[in-house]
Amino acid sequence: MGFGLGEFGLEEIIDTDRYPLNAPESPGYLAAVEAARAQLRESGCSLNKDFVRPEALTVMGREIRERKSQTHFSKQDINPYFHTELTTEYPPDHPVNTFIERSSGFIPGDAWDSSCVTDVLFRAPQVARFLADCLEVPALYCYADPLAGLTANILDPGQQFTWHFDTNDFAVTVLVEEADEGGLFEYVPAIRSADDEGFDAIGNVLGGGSTGVVSLDLRPSDLQIFRGRYSLHRVTRVADDSCPRHAAIFAYTEQDAVIGRVDRTQQLFGRVLQEHQDAERQRVRGDALLD
After folding, report:
1. How far apart are CA 256 and CA 259, in angstroms?
2. Which of 55, 223, 233, 270 could connect to 72 by a Cys-Cys bridge, CB 3.0–4.6 Å?
3. How far apart are CA 217 and CA 197, in angstroms?
């Protein structure tokens, strides 16, 4: 049975005592926004503890498990830019030529329906407004990509999502079910910028260095806002004898009607749609980073 916003109300999904999204002028809302802004300014990551109520989180977990058969799993050796082949213009030990296993899966956006709590939470305008306020941007729109807008990231026992950068400026995640062992979110804040790839620092991390690495105390029900375009990040390997790690990924954009890139879509979902092909022909890059 579905668990929808019309039936239960946003306050049944979100802890609106702590995060009063229905009262954006209230002191509680303004305090939550300011706390998130402070974290984002300091480290590029805001951890909003216990954002989702326990009952709703239970339903979200069930929704993921019911759709898990639609997960596209893939295993590749990638560099931090999601490339898989050597580049001769860089030395063999350069970050561009350093490839580490990525083994994980994604439940695509077209697996969900409007009755899902997970979908309701993603599309609630109050959530988009809260996130925009935290990120200090005028407005946010649900990512229009039919596969990558609302997804769930699946890490089964033995899998990991290695060091990488996001193509979007920020990502929004709700951890739904954590691993018993492993599955930790680690990141290096602002290791690169739009003008500086930061290869030396990245190479140190890829080689096993811990300089600047932050391990986030992320727990089920927490909402994470993360600037992953400039911060190297990973989810560590889930232990072989652990339960899986499941996280809902909510993607938003500052412009409406944005569609994802063909190559990254193919890597993560194993397919592309006509919408991706059409958008690729019209795309204009926002920076000159490797990706």
Report:
1. 9
2. 270
3. 27
Quote the DSSP letter at residue 102.
E
Q: Provide the pLDDT for residue 7.
A: 61
Tens digit of each residue's pLDDT (9 = 90 or more) over 156-212: 999 999 999 998 889 999 999 999 999 999 999 999 999 999 999 999 999 999 999
Concatenating the DSSP letter of every residue in 213-245 gives -EE----TT-EEEE-TTTSEEEEPPPPTTSPPE
SS (H, E, C) 178-194: CCCCCCCEEEECCCCEC
Per-residue pLDDT reduced to its tens digit, 61-102: 999 999 999 999 999 999 999 999 999 999 999 999 999 999
Q: In a 10 Å sphere around its CB, with 0-12 CB exposed, 13-18 middle and 19+ buried, how is residue 289 labelled? A: middle
End-to-end CA, the chain: 41
- Interhelix angle for 125-135 vs 27-43, to 10°? 50
Instruction: Give pLDDT, residue 1.
Output: 41
The Cα–Cα gap between 60 and 54 comes to 10
210-230 CB burial, b ≥16 within 10 A, e <16: eeebbebebebbbbbbbbbbb
Q: How far apart are CA 23 and CA 58, in angstroms?
A: 26
**CATH class assigned to 5-282:** mainly beta
Backbone angles phi, psi at 257, to 5 degrees: 65, 35
Q: Is 220's pLDDT higher than 70?
A: yes
**pTM (whole model) above 0.85:** yes
CA distance 114 to 289: 36
CA distance 45 to 246: 20
How far is the C-alpha of 110 from the C-alpha of 277, rounded, in Å? 17
